Amino acid sequence: MNAEPDSTSKREGVTPDRLLHSGAEGEFNAEDLVLASGRDVNPKNLAWAERRLAEKGKAALDELLP
Question: How many CA atoms lie within 13 A of 37 on its CB side?
């Protein structure tokens, strides 16, 4: 067994698992949904996100995140 720490857990620029969460357990808004979808925050995408939230509620974010 290797006594060296796992180098992949200390990679720069990678968020540790303990800090990751979907946000579905708390409040989120249209901007959060746009960012989770990987899109730019702009009026068109915010309108899309607001419609999606109105249709699906919290499931809109759950569908985008693993």
Answer: 20
CA distance 30 to 17: 24
* pTM higher than 0.85: no
**Cα–Cα distance for residue pair 19/48, rounded to 1 Å:** 28
HEC-encoded secondary structure of 37-65: CCCCCCHHHHHHHHHHHHHHCCHHHHHHC
Model confidence over 14-63: pLDDT tens digits? 777 776 665 556 688 999 999 999 999 999 999 999 999 999 998 998 89
